Amino acid sequence: MVSRPFESFSRLTKCTPWLQGSLTAAALTISVLPLNRLSDRIGRKPILLLGLSVALMSILWVGLAKTFWSLAASQCFRGLFDGNISVSKNVIGEMTDYTNRSRAFSLFLILSTCGRTLGLLIGGDLQKRSSSLFGIEFFKQHPYFLPCLVVAIILAIAFIVILFFLEETAPRRVLGRQSLQEESSQTYSPPLRELAVYPVIIAVANYTGLVFLNQCENALLPLVFAMPVEIGGLGFNPAQIGYILGAYSLLTTFFLAFFFGPIIRFFGERRFFIFCVFSQLLMWVMLPIIHQYARHFGIGAHVWVGLAVMSLPHVCVEMGFGCIYTYLIGAAPNRRSMSSTIAVAYVISSIFGIMVPTMATSLFSYSIQHNILGGYAVYAVISFWTVLATLVAFCLPFDARPVWERERS
Q: What sections of the protein cross the membrane (predicted)?
């Protein structure tokens, strides 16, 4: 059945979140490490340009897709050849030092959040206008091609900017004239067994824990907001859900832009990261409380106040990534193993990207269907993992600087 063309494009778009979250993550699990290690040899810039080219072709492919398998293939294609998700972190790590690295990653997160918001606006607005605006049969048959084309143009501009203005940061390409022996010792990708050391294991474990909590939030919040109050949700309509999630994104951008730097300078990466992880407990405690209020008193001021309180853990989980990226770079045994450390973390996070959304939503459904802990068992399980992730966060070292930067100072 799935191989037949969809009767309408709206049926196809219902599969998009699953495809983006699972198929791309599955392909990334295979490709992240090889692409990172290839960037050690040929440079970061070629891999970034390859990733943008693949993303451009993939998004146009999505706009033209009319069958399930065509859309699925586009996402697998992007996941297999787009290494930007991790190589870009290598570039930031190589362009900065411990004095400005956290701030640089916060800027990266700001731009990522703005990009997601812009993408939603482009996709929603242009999809509605494309067929009526042009009145062309092609746009009626492919109503998502226009927003995909606009995104492709943005990617093409980014390609040109990187091609002409980004300087290579890979150590192999910036060493200059050195002896072959010295170059080889500093730049070739190290064997993965070099990464089986305590600092790397702890940093990757904390990154994985944060990804787990973030994936749970991304999977459950839209579901809880949309489900009827009678079966564990809040009964919001799509517009309300969009406003809530959009407000969370705007608040995250605001805090990253104006408060992340001062907070890190005052508290330090370790203490603030522990707080960010522990704050997620607030979300999983607040959700059943908000639901009980909605069930007994309807959607009123108390529910909106509760949702406002939930914005704190949402903001903190995003800022936590700014901290843990610094620890991933700092955990690398040496400069030449930095990209492999980041790649290993992304491989594990991609695996979680495949499993966690399905696990979280299935547990939500099972809890309600069997009335386990009043239908709130899913929140109890995630709260337990939040406590474990907080305990693991205490194992992070007090100094997030890489070994080579500590030796230099």
A: 47-64, 104-123, 144-166, 195-213, 220-236, 242-260, 272-291, 303-330, 342-364, 376-398
